[in-house]
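The aim of this short unit is practical: by the end, you should be able to scan a pair of folded records and say something sensible about each. We start with the first protein, listed as its amino acid sequence and then its structure tokens.
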Amino acid sequence: MGRRAGLGEGPGCGTEGDLRTRREGGRRGNRVRGGPGSGAGTSGPLGLTDTGILPAPELLPRIAATEYQPYTGRGMVRGSVHDENSWQFGGAVGNAGIFSTAADIARFGEMLRCDGIVDDARILRAESVAEMLTDQLSPELDPGYRQGLGPRIGDASFMGRLAEDGAIGHTGFTGTSLVVDRSRDLVVVLLTNRVHPSRNWGSNNPARRAVVQGLALALGVGPRHGKDAWFSGTTDSATTTLSTNVAVPAGGARLAFDLFVDTEDTDLLYLESSTDGTTWTKVPFSVRDRGSVIETDGSISGSGNRHWHQVTADLGAGEQLIRWRYTSDPLYQGRGVYVDGVKITSEDGLLLDGERSPEAFTATGWRLSRR
């Protein structure tokens, strides 16, 4: 949505903004947009030209209608806060009522991502941002996410796979959301009209997750060798396989490949072998990550590093199939799994060079990806 695009109710700020207003004195409306000509408040220093409360009538053509509310006597709500409680109190309270655009909300997200700075200007102290992003919940409370002063932390219901990396964000009841992933340098804003003409449509969290996932995938993963790498795909509730056949001599062989893993902990990659294509056995492998070595039982998952690793495994003698099997659960995805530079060597020499012989692989759900 462009800078001059339509205005909508932004993600809610909740009680944190209200408490700050009471602590520091003054009206909440002034805290948001500043007094006339004062440059005070939050939106002025941030350069938010399309953010405020109680929008003027001339802005109505740029404001999307929300819900049909005959029970409040308002009919189709447009240009007024959607939330009934906020409306009853004049539309300038802490739980709802801020109107904004995607561009302005993204700018606010950038400020959080950059520890309180935007365009080289400090808006909030770094200590204030750190406190906002610090979990405020007692350890025994587990609502499925953590809660900072304002933003939620790691809420997979709308952040999808980014939640496991500690992304922060907030949603708005009308269908808006902001997600900030500081580890990926990402700010994602989605403004939808979920309640139009009725809130009974249900949740738009699947759309929120799809947008976040699509952007994460759009960042791409460059191949480690050559022009492409094998990619597992990122379909929920799926199993995809990549296999190759090799005849290993009596002295055994060494399998080596490069691996990129960005998955949920419950979405696993297995390395397996089979002599008949029916019964499969996990092949333990070692993962080298910038000097450290991790030994696995033949499976791996997770994220946090998001760079290429070097993998080695010993293969027993005999003709066999080697398979990479990726399985995913019903919800949430990262960028999936990439395998590149596959080589199998023995004392007799090179048995397989995957870069030179991509036709040696059988892919079901996997594909060659350039980025």
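Turning to the second protein, read its sequence before its tokens, just as you did above.
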Amino acid sequence: MKPFLHSIPLLLFVLILSGCKKQIAGTVKSFHVTSGTRYIDEVFSSVDTSLFKVGYRIAKTYHSSDTILKMNVYQPAGDTLRLRPAVVFIHGGGFSGGTEKDYYADSICSALARRGYVTISIGYRLGIAWAPHMSNADSILKQLEAAYRADQDARAAIRYIRKSSSIGRIDTTKIFIGGASAGVLCTWACIGPKLPSTSFCGHHAYHNRTVGSPKNM
């Protein structure tokens, strides 16, 4: 049986900068800032990657072993703004592959950091407990369990970001979340039971909803 999650078209998170421009856009003078509008243009020439491999959770995998989940934090180098909006990126891989270090995640996070965001690529538990001669119903259940583990981890990462003063001077009232492929499904699960307002163009989904309050995460 072809896993049903793999049959869902690839969904790519794109943060709609124009949607949040009224709240956070503006030109900010800082050491490494070039000409342009912060949050819209790449106004920083380099990215600070000193906060990589930050452990945020110890969790049980699907075969009951402990694993340390990590995140990579990208910051605009030389930025002096006291509080910055953050973007949490969840990588794809069908809940069985991919890492927070993927080239695609690194490219997205670096590009947004050069625009003035603190961007965070998170790792989450991977793996689906397949078994020989599994029924279609059991196969779907195991895939949903993998998706649920990823959702738990994403929520834990956001709680950690909100509470940790060491993560990049973040304005915790302006945290955006998104991802690619399985990461988009995880995003939808994180932001609440009601799917966000979306518009589809080819295989892309766009939204700019912020995450809920800490008690809902």
